[in-house]
C-alpha cells in the first residue's frame, strides 16, 4: 500500500496585527515532503517579511536537494543578526519526510518538535551541531505509519502569558493538550483546529504573540481515474472501459456518450438525474461501479475555470453539481489518471462551439498541468 | 395502467439549447400529468443532437423543443390517452 505525507497548519497573528509573523512553506518532491517553519523576530509586517524571507530561501535551497547542513550554513551567513539583541532575525525548523518513513529534522532557535506515538507525545532525540558558530539541533529517525509529528512556533508554548498562565503553557503543557486532543480523533485538521482554540483560550482570545501549529502524518494514497470522451477507434471501447474498471481508487466518467459506451460494455443501466444543482452544468448520471458520471465539455470547462483561480489550501466548492463533485475528487487525490478518448463528437460539430471550449484534449492537458503544479502525480493516456 | 414514457435529453448540445427549461416544465406540471407520464432524463437520445433539445415520448422522437411545444405535445398524448 502506498503512503503519502499529509500536512496541515494554522497561523494566528498577534492580537492587533494584520499579518502573522510566522511563515510555513511546503514543497513536495517525488516521494519526499519538505516543510519549513519560520518565526520572524517581533510581530506584524516586519516579522512577516523576515520569516517569509528565511523560509523562502530555505525551501528554495532544499528543493535543490543540497545537504541540510550546507543549507543552514548558507542561511546563517545570509540572514542578518539583530544588532540590539544579537540574535538571528528569524527562527527556522525544517522537517523532511519521505514516503517510506525516513525523517530528518533541523531546528534553529525554535521549540522542539513533538512526536505522537501510541497516543503519547515524546520529544525527539536530537544531537547538537555547530554550524558557523550557531547551535543547531538535528535528528534523523524513522516514523511509523500511525505516528504524527507536530511543530509549533514559540507563541504556542507561550500561550497564556498575559492571559491565564504566568509562564505560558510550555512544551509539556502543549504535549499534554496534544495527547488529549489526538485521543479523540486522529485527524490533523481536527487536532490543529482544537489546539488553536486551546491557545486562543489561554490567551483570552487576544494572543500576545504570533503562533503557528503544524502537524504531519501519513495517509494512504488517494487515486482517481477519469475517462473522458469516446476512443477514436470504436474497437478500443472494451479495452478502455476495462482499463477504467481495473484502476484502483475512484472512477469517473466524463461525457454522456462515453457514459453510454460504458453502460453498454458493462451491461448496466445508465440513469440520469433530473436535478440541476448549477444552472450551467447538466445533471450527473449514475452507473453501477462508477463513482461519478458527469456531462463532458461544459463540466470540464467549469473545472478548468475553477483551477485557473485556485490556490492551494483554498476551500473546495461544496455544491452537488457534476463540476463541483469532480473538482473535489481531483483535488483530494494524490494520483490522477486521465484516459482521454479522441473521437470527434459529431453532435458538437452542429453547435459551432467556440474553439477553446470544444477541444477536449487541450482542456484535459490544461487541467493536468494545474494538477501537476499542485504536486499531484498525473498521467494521461490517449485513445 | 402503463404510464407513457417521456425521456428528456440533458447532454451537452441539448443542455446548451435549453433542456433545463424542459426539466423545469415537467417538474412543475400538475398532478394529472404525473399520473399519465413517467419522466426520465438521458445523456443522449439516439444521436439526434442536431435536433437539440430532443425529447422522446412513447418511442417517438421530437426535436427542437421548448416548454410550450413540449406542453402541447404532452397535452396531445394526454387527450389521445383518455
Write a brief structural summary.
The complex is a heterodimer of chains A (383) and B (82). Chain A is α+β, with helices and mostly antiparallel strands. Chain A contains twelve helices and 18 strands.
Structural account:
The complex is a heterodimer of chains A (383) and B (82). With 383 residues, chain A is an alpha+beta fold. Chain A has helices spanning 44-62, 68-78, 154-157, 170-184, 188-202, 237-246, 256-266, 297-309, 322-332, 346-349, 355-358, 360-373; strands at 3-12, 22-28, 32-39, 92-98, 102-108, 114-117, 120-123, 127-131, 134-142, 148-152, 211-220, 223-228, 250-254, 271-272, 285-286, 292-294, 335-340, 377-382. Chain A is built from twelve helices and 18 strands. In chain A, the strands form four sheets. A six-stranded antiparallel β-sheet of chain A has the order 2-3-4-5-9-8. In chain A, strands 1-11-10-6-7 form a five-stranded antiparallel β-sheet. In chain A, a hairpin with a 2-residue loop joins strand 8 (127-131) and strand 9. In chain A, helix 1 (44-62) packs antiparallel against helix 2 and helix 4 crosses helix 5. Chain A is elongated, with a radius of gyration of 25 Å. With 82 residues, chain B is of the alpha+beta class. A four-stranded mixed β-sheet of chain B has the order 2-1-3-4. At the A-B interface, helix 7 and helix 10 of A face helix 1, helix 2 and strand 2 of B.
Along the chain, the helix and strand elements of chain B come as EHHHEEEH
Helix- and strand-based class of chain B? alpha+beta
| Rg over C-alpha atoms of chain B, rounded to the nearest angstrom | 12 Å
Percent in helix of chain B: 40-55%
Level-2 CATH architecture of the largest domain in chain A: 4-Layer Sandwich
Rounded mean pLDDT of chain B is: 90
| Named CATH topology of the largest domain in chain A | Phosphatase 2c, domain 1
Main-sheet strand order of chain B equals 2-1-3-4
Based on CA atoms alone, the radius of gyration of chain A comes out at 25 Å
Q: Note the run of SSEs of chain A as H and E.
A: EEEHHEEEEEEEHHHEEHEHEEEHHEHHHE
Percent of residues of chain A in helical segments? Answer: 25-40%
**Global shape of chain B:** globular
Counting structural domains of chain A, the number is 2
Largest sheet of chain B: 4 strands, mixed
- Describe the strand arrangement of the main beta sheet of chain A, using strand numbers: 2-3-4-5-9-8
Instruction: Determine the most extensive contact between two protein chains.
Output: A-B, 22 and 20 residues
Q: What is the C-level CATH assignment of the largest domain in chain A?
A: Alpha Beta
Structure annotation, total helices of chain B: 4
Distance between the termini of chain B: 12 Å
Distance between the termini of chain A: 29 Å
